[in-house]
Amino acid sequence: MNRRDFVSRQLATGLALGTPALLAHAQGSPQEGRDFRRVAEPLAMPAGKVQVVEFFGYWCPHCNAFEPALESWVRQLPADKVAFTRIPVAFQAWHENYQKLYFAIEALGQIDKLHTSVFKWIHVDKKRLDKDDEIRAWAAASGADATRILDAMKSFGIAGKLAKARQLAQGYGIDGVPTIGVHGRWMTSPSISGGPDRALSVTNQLIAQVRA
Q1: pTM here?
Q2: Locate the Thioredoxin domain: which residues (predicted)?
Q3: Cβ distance 173 to 158 under 8 Å?
Q4: Percent of the chain's residues with pLDDT above 70
Q5: Less Cβ around it within 10 Å: N or C end of the chain?
Q6: Contact status, residue 36 vs residue 124, Cβ threshold 8 Å
Q7: Element (H, E) at 186
Q8: How many Å apart are CA 115 and CA 124, to the nearest integer?
Q9: What's the Cα-to-Cα distance from 66 to each of 36, 91, 194, 207, rounded to whole Å?
């Protein structure tokens, strides 16, 4: 979802997805401009593993719809060769609270337990997480410690992560989510490539190209 679509649709119904993509051959070689885009100014990346990042927003219905396919794909990545991270982004002021929530969950080591439940709370249960009381209600329903999460959200460390997330999103030129960035060079997405499975297949080939 891009900025324009967000303003007009907000929490609209997500796109239906097909079977989760596996580490498999893409349907033909990916073409720049059709399946992926080049980052205008390549970003410096650490040596070693290929750096792959998903830019997303909990508030985004397309990110929610993409999550099952993405999660299946992430589980098959070779951990010794690819480093995968998620970066929450904000296009509106109120999105920042959702960024803080993700980083708090991450800091507490609760991504595996709570990440999916946030999407469900928003897109299935149709509830918000803008206020402390709303976060407490979600935490109670999800078996999480609301006090620890809220304290983490207000911490100095999370503020630093917000700044780094903003810098990385700006470096990639992110104007819509979900988007996958590959090693500071390229980005693709279901909307760019034509669907979630294709986006992940394109990502596989871009990873292979970096490793080559």
Answers
A1: 0.86
A2: 15-155
A3: no
A4: 87
A5: C
A6: no
A7: strand 186-188
A8: 14
A9: 17, 19, 13, 19
Check residue 181 and give its pLDDT: 98
At 185-207, the pLDDT tens digits run 999 999 999 999 999 999 999 99
**Amino acid code (one letter) for 149:** I
Place of tokens 């979900």: 178
Half-sphere exposure of 156 (CA within 13 A, CB side): 0
Q: How far, CA to CA in Å, does 210 sit from each of 10, 77, 119, 139, 159? A: 35, 15, 32, 40, 32
- Taking the C-alpha atoms of residue 190 and residue 160, their distance in angstroms, rounded to an integer, is 30
- As a whole number of angstroms, the distance between CA 154 and CA 163 comes to 14
Tell me: pLDDT of 67 over 80: yes
Pairing mode, if any, of strands 82-88 and 179-182?
unpaired
Q: Residues with Cβ < 8 Å from 211, sequence gap 6 or more?
A: 50, 81
